[in-house]
């Protein structure tokens, strides 16, 4: 599975908004500077997040962005879906829409299992969890698996 730059930037921008607390709206420039994200690219991402109901925006001198809901109510999966679409697709198609023949038939249940596990992890971790460095125990345990940090 590959996490796009767009998804990575979106999650980081959302976490920056969590860190800002109730200090009022945060300007896109401030988020871009704090997270080393190209400003113009971030503007498009924030627009998608606004359309997706994850952030609100306010215009003017005191304008900027803030989360539309509490950080506990926004999963990492929510953010990724808003900016990138489905969490797992094969050639841009959701696994249930695929069909295979012959020896490739067992690929479909494999893709479904992958999708299920990705959903379980990303839907189960909120922005608040990441911002507080308190990942759910089942997710944190996966990082202790032998070889989890190594590239084959």
Automatic annotation (TrEMBL):
Entry keywords, A to Z: DNA-binding
Keyword DNA-binding: yes
Coiled coil: none
InterPro entries (alphabetical): Tscrpt_reg_Rrf2, WH-like_DNA-bd_sf, WH_DNA-bd_sf
GO CC, any one term: cytosol
GO MF annotations, alphabetized: DNA binding; DNA-binding transcription factor activity
The protein's name in its UniProt record: Rrf2 family transcriptional regulator
UniProt source species: Streptomyces griseoviridis
Phylogenetic classification of the source organism: Bacteria, Bacillati, Actinomycetota, Actinomycetes, Kitasatosporales
């Amino acid at each position: 599975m590959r996490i796009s730059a767009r998804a990575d930037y979106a999650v980081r921008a959302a976490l920056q908004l969590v860190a800002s607390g109730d200090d009022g709206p945060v300007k896109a420039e401030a988020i871009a500077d704090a997270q080393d994200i190209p400003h113009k690219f971030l503007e498009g991402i924030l627009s998608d997040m606004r359309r997706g109901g994850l952030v609100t925006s306010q215009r003017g001198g005191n304008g900027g962005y803030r989360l539309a809901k509490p950080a506990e109510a926004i999963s990492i999966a929510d953010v990724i879906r808003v900016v990138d679409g489905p969490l797992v697709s094969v050639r841009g198609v959701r696994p249930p829409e695929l069909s295979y023949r012959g020896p490739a038939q067992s690929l479909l249940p494999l893709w479904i299992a992958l999708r299920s596990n990705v959903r379980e992890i990303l839907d189960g971790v909120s922005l608040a969890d990441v911002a507080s460095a308190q990942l759910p125990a089942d997710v944190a345990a996966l990082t202790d698996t032998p070889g989890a940090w190594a590239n084959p």
